[in-house]
Amino acid sequence: MARQKTVLFACGTGIATSTVVAHAVEDAMKERGIRFNSRQCKTTEVAGQIDDVDLVVTTAQLPKDLGKPVITTLAFLTGIGNAEALDKIEAVLRD
Questions:
Q1: Please, which pLDDT band fits residue 2 given cuts at 50, 70 and 90?
Q2: Which of 1, 34, 35, 83 has its CA 20 to 30 A from that of 25?
Q3: Who contacts 36 (Cβ-Cβ below 8 Å, separation ≥6)?
């Protein structure tokens, strides 16, 4: 059995947009048959929480050298590019 992966959702406050994005991704991945652990944080906290994370999904810019896959997207806030963002997230979670 494969280890369940962990996704860290980050935004400026760690509460508002990261919650919206986390719920959208959780619902979409559930429909695709993918389960994962979910956490949220502020963008300033990402570097300190990244060690046990498989993917970071963020609505804000992060440093480029985090050593883990990062998907920066506003798709779940604007509705533009949702399918593409979900496909990228699914690819990382199935990898």
A1: confident
A2: 1
A3: 4, 5, 6, 7, 26, 29, 54, 93
Q: Pairing relation of β-strands 55-58 and 37-42?
A: unpaired
Q: What's the average model confidence in pLDDT over 11-38? A: 95
Residues 6 or more apart from 31 whose CB is under 8 A from it?
Answer: none
Structure tokens at 1: 């059995």
Strand blocks (E) in the chain: 6-11, 37-42, 55-58, 70-72
Out of 8, 10, 11, 50, the active site residue is 11
Q: What pLDDT does residue 1 have?
A: 58
Look up 11 and say whether it is catalytic. Answer: yes
